[in-house]
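Worked example 4.2. Below are the chains of a multi-component assembly; read each line carefully before continuing.
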Amino acid sequence: MNVSEYMSKLGQQARDASRVLANCETAQKNNALVAMADAINQGRAVLKQANQQDLDAGALKGLSPAMLDRLELTDARIDTMVEGLHQVAGLSDPIGGITDMDYRPSGIQIGKMRVPLGVIGIIYESRPNVTIEAASLCLKSGNAVILRGGSEAIHSNTALAQCISAGLEKAGLPATSVQVVEITDRDAVHQLITMPEFVDVIVPRGGKGLIERISADARVPVIKHLDGNCHVYVDAEADIAKAQRIAFNAKTRRYGVCNAMESLLVHESVAKAFLPEIARMFAEKGVELRGCELTQDLIDCETATEEDWYLEYVAPILAIKVVASFDEAVAHINKYGSHHTDAIVTENFTTARKFLRAADSSSVMVNASTAFADGFEYGLGAEIGISTDKIHARGPVGLIGLTSQKYVVFGDGHIRES
Amino acid sequence: MNVSEYMSKLGQQARDASRVLANCETAQKNNALVAMADAINQGRAVLKQANQQDLDAGALKGLSPAMLDRLELTDARIDTMVEGLHQVAGLSDPIGGITDMDYRPSGIQIGKMRVPLGVIGIIYESRPNVTIEAASLCLKSGNAVILRGGSEAIHSNTALAQCISAGLEKAGLPATSVQVVEITDRDAVHQLITMPEFVDVIVPRGGKGLIERISADARVPVIKHLDGNCHVYVDAEADIAKAQRIAFNAKTRRYGVCNAMESLLVHESVAKAFLPEIARMFAEKGVELRGCELTQDLIDCETATEEDWYLEYVAPILAIKVVASFDEAVAHINKYGSHHTDAIVTENFTTARKFLRAADSSSVMVNASTAFADGFEYGLGAEIGISTDKIHARGPVGLIGLTSQKYVVFGDGHIRES
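Applying the procedure described above to all two chains together yields the following structure tokens:
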């Protein structure tokens, strides 16, 4: 069987399984999730053995220590997987819920029912825990899923797939509800993203390069997350203490995350009151500052170039710009930002209200740290990713983002007269 | 300026205009819509002159009478445009509404704000009224739009564009909020669907061939409507009189619409009671029937081939199949149907409930005619099209389908502790 035949087979099996999942009861899905957790818990030895194969191959291949670390299945990480499966089992089931059953003048009653998307393809890098996370969220939302993890994790993922199948079968669900692509051929990804007859949506998780390539080649909709170039704008009427607390948290809570602040905008009228102290705080924490000319007049820092405003550093580096007005701040955010998460710090009601409308970002915040942009913090219960698109899902994507709605119409023999 | 430069210019202008539209007040949009209506009403002579140019060129080119009819701007059609603009002005504005502002354990308050998609590209055939319909819906939903109508309507569309610009300017909105592509070069379509930096979504309106080509080549999400192969399934426990009324209406109300029934499925236990009378009704109306073997045992009709089950006739033809079970009916609908609109006729509560889940269609109906699948009948106030996709919008697409939601987060200096 060649790659194309293999992927079509997975696709057809996923499509068939999706019909069963769309109609199954909540308890059955939850039973499967708990049974998967049990299989993983009891299969630790086998999982770690398979993982060791990947680690050995990775070391031989010269993977970086950071990559090897992400690849490793420690006991603590296995615990987290088991716990995660129980948590997803505990989430409420979005599927089948009917809302807004209103009567129309014609006499029909119409509303919307939440339904699964069908088959989801997930493409991700060599982190085995994503296998379980993605599988559990897709299953809970009633979708079949095809998982294509990084080739460096192939043995770990194949072993996890066996735990998943065991759990599905125990609950009486098709083992093909969750399928791991068990060939490492690169063409498998191309096949996966170009079979709209079998796959309804692709969710890529990984670096920007990977996601851009997938988006360019896909023949299937992609829920994607590119950059997280987030801003905090300190307004003329900001409470300076709040602004310092928020800016410091938004930058330093974690550097490698997409909701970290990468550029700080400061209204000129408060720059003098705000910048020296925050610069001291950042210096103490080891954050490198790159400022515009006006910033450099007030604090000691590197020069920010035009390119800096576009950058997602994912590092202890921050660009700072002093702006002359609210409008300049908003224009800067909409031009250089990535439409991910942007915050204003202000005490002015009217300015806050204007910012909410004007900032074209998936999350717009007033007097809160960008670090809150996260599915769990937002109460979604889970997160498959953060979408920087506007179509279908925007911002943190939880179970609802993996669903659609269909119309349901009730009548009593009603026909349309005209 | 070549085609690519011309389209990029339109794209950049649309993007810039979209920033203004996203922030403007409802009254301003409504004023523009009413001013457009006035401009059209007062510009009848000019519009009809431009339309005559298109009609003359079309006649010379040998367009069919049906195409020439669709192209013609009669006084009645101009009245309908004027009325349509007033109606859209009267719809409530979806933009800016904030819902579900809930507090989270961290202390932040989070909800969702409805926002425009940004820039919409509409590609349609030679029906000038679509120019006004699409322009008004995009404007009301806060989106800038680039309209690419059929080349046969170029003079009519250019004249309408002037009325639109006049209306926008009178209301103080950018004239570039609505732009008509004023070159007929075919490459303009390709450009329009491959500039994600300027266009957020494409809505094609026209034949299946056009929509398939656009979907295949687009680098931008497409809200599309392919087939409308709708079914009515008459269950074992159907009220026969209701079933006859519904099936007759679903087929004969209009033949050329996407919500017309194309296949009729009948449970074997009621086939004898149901089929002869409905066959008589259809015969009287001149509808050609094509049946499976069991159908042919009961009524006089042509033979339905495997291919018939896939067909959207858009004509007075109907395929009829007798099925042995509910499951066979559902499997048939999900296999041969187009996931548009499918109805069951049954008095059984449990069967109805099962059908709602199992039929994978954008509209699922119980005891109502498929003819109701329509944005106006559903109370959307307007309809830009019907989506047979699951991503973003499914079923009739009104103003809401042209919008997205962003998260809004309020704090009081809140930071994320862990």
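Take a moment to check your reading of the output against the notes. The CA atoms of residues 165 and 175 of chain B lie 5 Å apart. The first strand of chain B starts at residue 98 and ends at 103.
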